[in-house]
């Protein structure tokens, strides 16, 4: 796999960081930024953000219908907003986990449990697209 495929908005991905013992968290905001970059938002209080500032090497695993791959790359904070940092990962390599022996039928099913959380998610996605007015 030479280029990032498209995946559905809201796909739960797994961000893995180093800078100490391995650390992995689910991230629901990852968006494709072209063939060799992606971006996501992290709350400013996240341990993962501290780790990425110390050591930008990371992996992002994406599992969605028909997709199973891990991006290896380096993260940079594009900008900080009031509650989140917009993080860009420039891709060094992509490990395609597709197999003839199995297929991913669906990603993780999830939903926000409050209107405030859903509104915050919409603001976050707008920031990831580079617009603050949506």
Secondary structure: elements and pairs:
Blueprint: E1 13-17, E2 23-27, E3 31-32, E4 37-43, H1 47-54, E5 57-64, E6 67-80, E7 84-96, H2 115-128
Antiparallel strand pairs: 1-2, 1-5, 3-4, 4-7, 5-6, 6-7
Structural commentary:
This is Pyridoxamine 5'-phosphate oxidase. This protein is α+β, with helices and mostly antiparallel strands and 134 residues long. The chain has one domain: Pnp Oxidase, Chain A (Roll), CATH 2.30.110.10. 16% of the residues lie in helices and 40% in strands. The chain has two helices and seven strands, in the order ββββαβββα. A seven-stranded antiparallel sheet has the order 2-1-5-6-7-4-3. It is globular, with a radius of gyration of 15 Å. It starts with 12 loop residues before the first strand and ends in a 6-residue tail after the last helix. The relative contact order is 0.21. The model has no long low-confidence stretch (mean pLDDT 92).
């Amino acid at each position: 796999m030479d280029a990032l495929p498209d995946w559905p908005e809201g796909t739960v991905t797994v961000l893995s960081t180093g800078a100490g013992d391995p650390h992995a968290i689910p991230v629901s905001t990852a968006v494709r930024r072209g063939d060799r970059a992606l971006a996501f938002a992290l709350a400013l209080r996240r341990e993962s953000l501290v780790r990425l500032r110390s050591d930008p090497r990371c992996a992002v695993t994406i599992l969605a219908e028909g997709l199973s791959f891990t991006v290896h790359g380096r993260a940079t904070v594009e900008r900080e907003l009031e509650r989140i940092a917009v993080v860009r990962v420039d891709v060094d390599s992509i490990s395609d986990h597709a197999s003839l022996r199995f297929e991913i039928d669906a990603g993780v099913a999830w939903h926000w449990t409050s209107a405030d959380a859903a509104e915050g998610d919409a603001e976050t996605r707008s920031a990831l697209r580079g617009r603050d007015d949506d």
